[in-house]
Automatic annotation (TrEMBL):
CoA binds at R197, R198, G199, K200, T315, N339, S527. Catalyzes the conversion of acetate into acetyl-CoA (AcCoA), an essential intermediate at the junction of anabolic and catabolic pathways. AcsA undergoes a two-step reaction. In the first half reaction, AcsA combines acetate with ATP to form acetyl-adenylate (AcAMP) intermediate. In the second half reaction, it can then transfer the acetyl group from AcAMP to the sulfhydryl group of CoA, forming the product AcCoA. It is an enzyme of class 6 (ligase). The modification N6-acetyllysine is found at K613. It catalyses: acetate + ATP + CoA = acetyl-CoA + AMP + diphosphate. ATP binds at G391, E392, P393, D415, T416, W417, W418, Q419, T420, D504, R519, R530. Mg(2+) binds at V541, H543, V546. PROSITE patterns: AMP_BINDING (PS00455). SUPFAM superfamilies: Acetyl-CoA synthetase-like. This is Acetyl-coenzyme A synthetase.
Amino acid sequence: MSSKKSTSADPAEATYKPDKKFAKKARISSLSEYQELYQESIRKPQKFWAKEAKELQWRKPWSKTLKWDPPFAEWFTGGELNVCENCVDRHAEGPRKNKAAIIWEGEPGDKRVITYAQLKREVSKFANVLEKNGIEAGDRVLIYMPMVPEAAIAMLACARIGAVHNVVFGGFAADAILDRLEDSGAVAVITADGGWRRGKVIPLKPTVDDALQRFSKVRRVIVLNRCGNDISMQEGRDVWWADEMENVSAQHTAKGFDSEHPLFILYTSGSTGKPKGILHTSGGYLTGTYATCKYIFDMRDDDVYWCTADVGWITGHSYIVYGPLANGVTQVMYEGAPNFPDFGRFWQMIEEYGVTIFYTAPTAIRAFIKAGDAFPAKYDLSSLRLLGSVGEPINPEAWLWYHEHIGGGKCPIVDTWWQTETGAIMISPLPGATPCKPGTATLPFFGIDAAVLDDAGNECKPNEDGRLVIRQPWPSMTRTLYKDKARFKKVYWSDYPGFYTAGDGARRDKKGNFWIIGRLDDVLNVSGHRLGTAEIESALVAHHAVAEAAVVGRPDDLKGQAVAAFVTLKTGYEESPELVVELRNHVAHVIGAIAKPDDVYCTAALPKTRSGKIMRRLLKELVSTGKISGNITTLEDSEVITSLQKKITGGS
Ligand code: WT7
């Protein structure tokens, strides 16, 4: 029962039609059914979304589906719900009571299964802990945790009491935590002593302590004992998770919050040095994540779903915590690295738990390809029925390997395009309906009016490159940048009035499939993570030896993009291999290991225009191709390029 391939000699060019058996059982079973419903959903988006929202549990019905005052949207105005109740209580009180909600594995091999009823007890207890510690609705709470069930429990407990969580990825450094504490005005932090990664303990609490030395508004730090590593606790401020949980009730009465009550802030990189606080609210966000899980991942009661993201990213928020739990599915959660103890870890877990739906990133797939086919071949992966990909365009080689070696040639692959800002998947195949082709995220989800426009605002012709936009509001869209409406307007809504600009270049083929080309701004996509070049530059310039810095991306086989940095040194400093190492570590120390430059080039000067602007475009071309093809007449000093070229290509 292989998914049907059209007759093209080149597998990368072939079209992969949904398997008939899959299609028959799927919610949407054919391309024509999708097209019909899609057209209807674009004509009447509010009708489509209201129908989906009605499948959630509301404390008070909404009076207006959408209030649209571009670019500010309100969905399900007047409605009240409790997001946590929808993800937990709703299942814990029905036939799913003793169903596994989370099957968790720690990196060292420890295992836990948490049923929906148990999840309700844990979340209720932790909600009581938060309240006992004076945390109230609207307060901001920073969460800095490893991938343990308590991370999800903390998020859900915040949602339950109406506190706004801001999860910070555990790989970020103290300065990144500090920025987020300051911008969000957090009053509490939830963290752990550490987490396991590649057989080692990564300490977390000491990093929080470092940030808190420079920020005094946090009243309470709740610390989970995960690894038993040595940490210090500040009397009067820091308390242990387990101690707090001991003396609280397992009953917590949830109340309803306004549909537009803020649910969380998640920071993401933009083209300036300051990360953007993406704000998501309750009713619309939950509707979007719920509906996309249902249609795109085809979630069913007997599924075992596994998304390998970290809760520190939007994928973890929408497709580990809120979407899957709102659907009452059983999911696998894993703490550590994909290659610990070896590259068979994921496949061994898929076999052990009988995972049916698996969602990961192209960068991981490329690392698996490199590790060799023998790893997946050792395990029985026949439980899988659907695969997903997210984070960057999936190259045909990775797509084909995923399809064959993981999906056994029979599983549809949903290549899902979306962003932190969009909250939920926007463009993706529907697994029982959409013919797939390696490299394209195919067609927009219901209610999503996506288009590719040229500079003048006209729709591009087939195969013509342009800018990806969304022309109508959708429920899970970010409402604003936290405390910065002006920047929100400017970044996303000023290219084409009334339309959301994603910041991605794209083209559509004759069949209407969307091919995402990549970011159009100064943002890199390194292993599916968004990194602002400006942030890395300001980290470099903060080093005492650096006068000026320019950061660009260059293609990388594994990571998609690698970070290349160019620096000029202050007088008195000389280029040396030690300094290069120091600068790389410095960036890791300021932002986090993910931002560590792969290459650092010291140069006498940076290429600039006559008006003094750094020409990153040239640097990018240089690191990508080793030469400059275009016009450099606007350069102030063309010698700069010649000497850099020698340096990069190693020529003399
Ligand atoms: C950017 C958003 C949303 C989850 C993870 C990243 C790129 C994401 C795809 C895809 C091509 C993709 C885009 C987008 N991107 N998914 N399937 N195909 N590109 O979230 O950090 O907000 O980054 O990731 O460039 O703008 P994010």
